[in-house]
Inverse folding.
């Protein structure tokens, strides 16, 4: 971005990652959320629910006519082939997804995903016409060693595709030690990391990087959402546990109402 140019207006995104939770009965959480959103006068953010792949079609149907978009939690890099148990970005798209999370720390840890794997998945998402939500974040050990910005810089460099634009890519900063623990960084710490991510994105992608959404994730709840969402360069949230119930998730979305 040229010096002196005004920062672009970014529409925030509040995304729910249901992880390995949810059965068909969970559709009532989506209809409950849709009802609450419809009653709100103005919802100043985009809303996304990423259920297990088994529920994408069903929830897409349930969300019809509402503001709620549906996404996947992971995809394979290939479009099809002999990969038992895997799901391609094209399949997610076909089922009704508009987004896919890639490189979540649980997949990096449980499935040994490297930055190169994550980048290939982000490329697959773009190929299929999905928005890729690319996750980065440091472990507690890395944080204690003062390596947070170095780790995140490396993950961004390795995981983002060169063709990434503000329309095709969302970055989610999720400190691993804040996920599911009830602990969050201070607003100051979040501000520092998000500013560094913004600088990196602008350095690599110019105006597109200035307009890319950077989400914060890790123990976001209705009680801390307003404070975290007010931090500069925080353009929404990636929410785990508190996205499972319509009431809680709506409580977080309310930071933008
Ligand atoms: P929690 O909100 O449960 O801490 O999970 C965050 C997360 O990992 C979302 O992707």
């Amino acid at each position: 971005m040229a010096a002196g140019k005004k920062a672009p207006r970014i529409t925030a995104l509040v995304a729910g990652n249901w992880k390995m939770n949810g059965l068909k009965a969970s559709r009532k959480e989506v209809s409950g959320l849709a009802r609450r959103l419809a009653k709100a006068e103005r919802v100043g953010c985009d809303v996304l629910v990423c259920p297990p792949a088994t529920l994408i079609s069903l929830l897409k149907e349930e969300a019809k006519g509402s503001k709620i978009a549906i996404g996947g939690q992971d995809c394979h890099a290939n479009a099809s082939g002999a990969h038992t148990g895997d799901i391609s970005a094209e399949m997610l798209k076909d089922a009704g997804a508009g987004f896919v999370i890639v490189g979540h720390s649980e997949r990096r840890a449980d499935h040994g995903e490297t930055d190169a794997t994550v980048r290939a998945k982000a490329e697959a998402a773009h190929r299929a016409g999905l928005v890729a939500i690319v996750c980065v974040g440091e472990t507690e050990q890395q944080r204690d060693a003062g390596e947070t910005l170095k780790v995140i810089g490396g993950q961004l460099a390795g995981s983002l595709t060169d063709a990434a634009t503000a329309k095709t890519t969302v970055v989610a900063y999720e400190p691993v030690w804040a996920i599911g623990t009830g602990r969050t960084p201070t607003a100051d710490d979040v501000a520092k990391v998000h500013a560094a991510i913004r600088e990196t994105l602008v350095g690599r992608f110019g105006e597109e990087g200035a307009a890319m959404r950077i989400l914060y994730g890790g123990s976001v709840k209705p009680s801390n959402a307003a404070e975290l969402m007010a931090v500069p360069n925080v353009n929404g949230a990636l929410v785990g546990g508190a996205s499972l119930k319509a009431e809680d998730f709506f409580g977080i979305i309310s930071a933008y109402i």
